[in-house]
Amino acid sequence: MRNSVRYLRNNVVEIIEDLDPRQTLLDHLRLSKQAVGTKEGCNEGDCGACTVVLGRIRDGELHYEPVNACITLTGMVDGCEVITVEDLAEGETLHPVQQAMVDHHGSQCGFCTPGIVMSLFALYQDGARPVTRQAITDQLSGNLCRCTGYRPIIDAAQSACAAAPADRFARARAGKRQALLNLQDEMDVFVGDEQRFFAAPASVDALARLYLQHPDATLVAGATDVGLWITKQLRDLKKIIWLGRVAKLDRLTLAEDGVSMGATVTHARALPALAAIDPDLGEMMRRFGSTQVRASGTVGGNIANGSPIGDLAPALIALGARLYLRRGEEGRALLLEDFFIGYGKQDRQPGEFVVGLAVVKPGADEAFRCYKISKRFDEDISAVMGAFKFTLAGGRIASARVAFGGMAATPRRGLHTEEALAGIELDDSSNWGRALDALAVDYQPISDMRASADYRNEVARALLMKALVEIAGAESSETRLIGRRERADAA
């Protein structure tokens, strides 16, 4: 067992042996390392002023990703390279991204600029070439700028990222990769004592033993939710178990009929796999938080926190996803929809944790749609999230799965709505009314800061109608196409 946290910065291995489990990376950098270029803005992972870049080994290769230092716990950088805005320039020579921001007048007050530079630095290093405007705006979705506006910042990004990376980080990439590989070991990390600790087990078996021994500990994967418990709710979390070092818990397996993924697969890694299941899932994930949030937050964490307004759960429930859990030596599986019991409550025993999940791709006779409604397009929590899967028989809905987020205390299926949908003809909209009315039986949402109950009810009806219209149109087009093919074959 190792009693320290280790990370790489500026080619020096930093070792932390005395660690407050609640300490954020932002506080560590500013207070212990005097790296004050990393700013504290919202302190909730929203504004991006605190953005730093982590170099991480994944599948044997080095990847650079931006994260929010304000909600990333210090212990979570074990085995990583930490890069801050102070680390970019070579002596008096600015980094190409920094120089482009100067040349294109991309900064005014300057408070948000370090975070913007770090997000663009990650794009400079790992962005696909040619870098598109869409890729730039997606990269900047987690960085707010209230002074300059984004046009000169986007211009700077297009200029700096036009060619392949050629800075000192690119030149030293092979050496950095080896240095990080040298930091990796198969040892469990435990810093603290039995009453207050930061732990990072290295295997699922070690995690199961530790969590069974300390069921009152807080499990942390990406900390995009737990981080706010610390910074906003000021909770004194005495025992933290980080899942980021657990071997094989980040495994993602693609198959012809679907995908299975471990609990610590990040949203960034899950995005292309889910998009391959259905384009609507890919678009929903593109709007999931920000680049920084998707690089840290995990699929398992999003499910395990049981949020009634989580984006992912309703979509996966509609697809019939199956969840896998473990407690001690025992494991079990259940449908995702059965995991959510009540507000903030899940079917999870003390010492039990999410191991992973499996999602089956819709079949040839199935149609899937999901829609996110929020006040902002990017980086916003849903007011309503609707997901629909219809099994079709000709132009008729043989069966349906309907799930919503933001409409109840948990992500929930609409069983009465599903019953009303079964058997209706898609080419006869006059018989859709009973299904639309059934939504009011399944869901009685509340009013809160994001939306009123009346708004949510109206939006839910509109989303179901949208799914019916789109699927009816697609089914009609396919029927016409088949008819043309049949006529051509007969001729």
Automatic annotation (TrEMBL):
Gene3D superfamilies: 3.10.20.30, 3.30.465.10, [2Fe-2S]-binding domain, CO dehydrogenase flavoprotein, C-terminal domain, Uridine Diphospho-n-acetylenolpyruvylglucosamine Reductase, domain 2. Keywords: FAD, Flavoprotein, Iron, Metal-binding, Oxidoreductase. The keyword Cell division does not apply. Residues 190-364 form the FAD-binding PCMH-type domain. It holds the Pfam family CO_deh_flav_C. InterPro entries: 2Fe-2S-bd (IPR002888), 2Fe-2S-bd_dom_sf (IPR036884), 2Fe-2S_ferredoxin-like_sf (IPR036010), 2Fe-2S_ferredoxin-type (IPR001041), 2Fe2S_fd_BS (IPR006058), Ald_Oxase/xanthine_DH-like (IPR016208), Beta-grasp_dom_sf (IPR012675), CO_DH_flav_C (IPR005107). The keyword Amino-acid biosynthesis does not apply. SMART domains: CO_deh_flav_C (SM01092). This is Xanthine dehydrogenase small subunit. The lineage of its organism: Bacteria, Pseudomonadati, Pseudomonadota, Alphaproteobacteria, Hyphomicrobiales. The gene is xdhA.
